[in-house]
């Protein structure tokens, strides 16, 4: 019983996660390769390995001929006299199995056989690693910063290294070697040198996956992330919805004293995160998305995917945001092209007034009553109540 072989295969299977059957097949192929190198051919050679004991048998199927003169190829034929030494029932025209002693193989044939086994182990190891990380594609993994390769960063993910390209890095982030960071696995490619793993720190899905891992209600499906808009390193907006009326989706994501959202902000190196409620009504959704700005009115066109928004004069800069960031993220979050004007600007702008949306045969008295209501304090209080 070849205990050393079995023990070696068990160790390889455990360490490299390569199946023992694959390793047995590699050994069989290596012996066939050795036969071909030693004899010049191996078409009639077969190798059998006992999976339990590790014992192996290498033999060639040879045709039995009557005399030496009839032998054209010693590798394919054998005389009846020699065949009788192997099996008493040998007969001319039949085939017998002639054992091949692997010890007879030369140094070159043996070295080639060894190389075949090592090559197979390397290939299988690469395939195991590829499959392992391919299953993690479009997910978040924790890695250790190894070194900078030019402007790119090599990240060790455990059994494989990933590449964080410059285009996938947040400009404000700087990492030190051995620092642990979380990355989003964008793509896993199979190459001759092993899997090529591309990761990102700027992808919007990174924020989503971090919330899924941090917020139990998202993980179990009670709360859904409906939409995400992100400007990496600066600000993100996410719209959430609760499938349970008793669960506040925003509160669940924020956590007690902001514990949940703060842990994600820390992981993203201080990136600000706005969490708003999702609503099927585009007007309400846009109003929520422009938070923290107060909104006077929203005129949304679902067909054109456009919206005109009126805000108080003193809220215009807040609604638009620094360099237009707040309005830009709200547009991405909702999928609407948003045009924002202050109340003063809206008075003379078509499409920003209630009367622009009234039919020609509207009730004049009813509209005048609405205008009076709009000007009094009750209207202002109701709008502020909706914003809150």
Fold blueprint:
Elements: H1 3-16, H2 20-39, E1 45-49, E2 56-65, E3 77-79, H3 80-86, E4 95-99, H4 107-134, E5 140-149, E6 152-156, E7 161-164, E8 180-191, E9 194-200, H5 204-214, H6 216-219, E10 223-231, E11 235-242, H7 249-254, H8 259-267, E12 272-277, H9 282-289, E13 297-301, E14 306-311, H10 316-320, H11 325-334, E15 337-342, H12 343-346, H13 364-375, H14 377-387
Overall description:
- The chain is an alpha/beta fold and 388 residues long.
- It folds into four domains: 3-132, NusA, N-terminal domain (N Utilization Substance Protein A, Chain:P, domain 4, 2-Layer Sandwich), CATH 3.30.1480; 136-201, Nucleic acid-binding proteins (OB fold (Dihydrolipoamide Acetyltransferase, E2P), Beta Barrel); 203-278, K homology (KH) domain (GMP Synthetase, Chain A, domain 3, 2-Layer Sandwich); 281-388, K homology (KH) domain (GMP Synthetase, Chain A, domain 3, 2-Layer Sandwich), CATH 3.30.300.
- It is 38% helix and 26% strand.
- It has 14 helices and 15 strands.
- The chain has a five-stranded mixed β-barrel.
- A hairpin with a 2-residue loop joins strand 5 (140-149) and strand 6 (152-156).
- Helix 2 (20-39) runs antiparallel to helix 4 (107-134) and helix 5 packs across helix 8 (259-267).
- It starts with a helix and ends with a helix.
- Mean pLDDT is 85; it is low at 366-375 and 377-388.
């Amino acid at each position: 019983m070849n205990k050393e072989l079995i023990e070696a295969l068990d160790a390889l299977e455990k360490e490299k996660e390569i199946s023992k059957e694959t390793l047995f097949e590699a050994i069989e192929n290596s012996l066939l390769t050795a036969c071909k190198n030693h004899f010049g051919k191996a078409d009639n050679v077969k190798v059998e390995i006992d999976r339990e004991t590790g014992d192996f048998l290498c033999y060639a199927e040879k045709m039995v001929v009557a005399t030496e003169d009839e032998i054209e190829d010693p590798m394919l034929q054998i005389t009846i006299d020699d065949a009788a030494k192997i099996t008493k029932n040998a007969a001319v025209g039949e085939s017998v199995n002639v054992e091949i002693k692997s010890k007879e193989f030369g140094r070159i044939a043996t070295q080639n056989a060894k190389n075949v086994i090592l090559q197979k182990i390397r290939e299988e190891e690469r395939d195991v690693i590829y499959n392992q990380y391919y299953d993690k594609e479009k997910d978040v993994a924790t890695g250790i910063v190894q070194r900078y390769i030019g402007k790119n960063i090599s990240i060790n993910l455990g059994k494989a290294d990933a590449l964080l390209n410059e285009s996938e890095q947040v400009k404000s982030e700087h990492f030190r070697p051995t620092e642990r960071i979380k990355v989003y696995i964008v793509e896993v490619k199979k190459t001759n040198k092993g899997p090529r793993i591309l990761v990102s720190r700027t992808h919007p899905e990174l924020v989503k996956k971090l919330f899924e891992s941090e917020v139990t209600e998202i993980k179990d499906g009670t709360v859904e992330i409906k939409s995400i808009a992100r400007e990496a390193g600066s600000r993100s907006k996410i719209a959430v919805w609760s499938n349970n009326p008793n669960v506040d989706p925003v509160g669940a994501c924020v956590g007690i004293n902001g514990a949940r959202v703060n842990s994600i902000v820390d992981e993203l190196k201080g990136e600000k995160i706005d969490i708003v409620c999702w609503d099927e009504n585009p007007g309400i959704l846009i109003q929520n998305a422009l938070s923290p700005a107060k909104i006077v009115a929203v005129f949304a066109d679902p067909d054109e995917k456009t919206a005109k928004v009126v805000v108080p004069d003193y809220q215009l800069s807040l609604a638009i945001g620094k360099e237009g960031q707040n309005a830009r993220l709200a547009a991405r979050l909702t999928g609407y092209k948003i045009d924002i004007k202050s109340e003063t600007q809206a008075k003379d702008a078509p499409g920003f007034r209630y009367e622009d949306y009234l039919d020609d045969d509207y009730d004049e008295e009813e509209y005048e009553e609405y205008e009076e209501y709009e000007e009094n304090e009750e209207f202002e209080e109701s709008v502020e109540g909706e914003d809150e």
